[in-house]
Amino acid sequence: MTNETFDNPWQGALVRLGEAAERLKLEDGMHEMLRHPRRTLEVAIPIAREGGGRMTVVGYRVQHSLTRGPGKGGVRYHPEASLDETKALAMTMTWKCALVDIPYGGAKGAIRVDPSALAVSELEAMTRRYTSEIAPLIGPDRDILAPDLGTGAREMAWIMDTYSTATGFLQGSSVTGKPVEVGGSSERRGATGFGVVVCIHHEVERLKLKPPIEVAIQGFGAVGRTVATMLDSDDRYRVVAVADETGGRFDAGGLDVTALAVHCDAGGPLSMVPVGEQIPADEVVLVPCDVMVPAAIGGVIDAGNAGRVSARLVVEGANAPVTPDGDMTLADRGTVVVPDILANAGGVVASHYESLRAGWHTESADIRGWLEQRIGSAHARVVEFSERTGLNLRDSAMCLGVESVITAHRTRGLYP
Length: 416
Ligand code: NAD
What we know:
The chain is of the alpha/beta class. It contains 13 helices and 12 strands. The radius of gyration is 20 Å and the shape is globular. Bound molecules: nicotinamide-adenine-dinucleotide.
């Protein structure tokens, strides 16, 4: 790998694929094919503003691979979303679904918008128009949408309703992460965080970290908050720092996570909650701790700050929070990184479960057991590969994921 800075997530994704291709000794033609998303759609979404006038935002849907099953991937609403980021995230989904052996390909969607700047009626209109624009590409057997940064069950209900209305019948399996009332799973919102925690437990045991294990978490949404809440209720762990986009809170003696959650439920940003000491949002990755969980946005640990990360273990709740050059610095320091395609795969595992159950209510314990088994066995395979080859966990996970996609390609053959 070069020592270049990878500001562009798509370049980073290609570098990681290139390294796996080299390790797996992939022929050039196969590698070249995987470097290209199968389909890329960019759409313009005009929105009528509540106060009059209109604005137009840009959206994307990228299907990187449909070889192992229909496309699968979240929809992100973020002011810095881009086509390159969406392509990178779609490719990541391909390896993730393959690694945890879920019969889906890889896809991703995004709208370049700040959702907090829109009224609810504007958000709904934007979501419905986006769905209508990408409708020719999606559907239960083509490409299944899910929540991501800036979206949740509410948006999934709007997407499902729009797609169902357009096709003339209920299309419950066109999205996962739906509200429970329309066939969603009560465990889906917390599933990704749950999978992160499963990985933390396994790694803490493998690395023989001793309690109290201090944890810092960036992001206090679906993923970060679940991790914070679960670890806070476990005597072995102490949550010393959390951050959302407004700022972070730090207390070396352990934060009162319940108080933070209550404050956030009341609509308050973390920067304003009178718990612990205030720190800048991006400082949370650098606070003294044993385990760092980046669970917000991509690229937060790079060549510029990786040398100051104190954690022994970084578990990627977010997608691509560590850049390839950040990885090199962390490796030099002996920091173990559990890669996104393993650590945050709980969401897609629970999504698959939601689809299999097709709207039937399921006991939480069933889903958690399924998650624990799926993430636990993928973790064990990655560790076994790593110990056998001497590769780190990311490179091992990438090799396993890419290899599984390649096997499916070879088995299916090439049309025409
Ligand atoms: P979310 O919208 O529910 O929460 C995001 C959180 O990150 C919020 O607390 C927000 O304030 C915070 N944040 C945003 N920018 C920040 C910054 N610059 N510094 C600090 N905090 C910041 O999103 P989510 O669903 O929890 O997703 C978080 C990450 O996990 C994303 O990278 C997403 O792609 C990834 N992920 C999510 C899922 C899922 O099931 N939700 C699955 C796999 C991966």
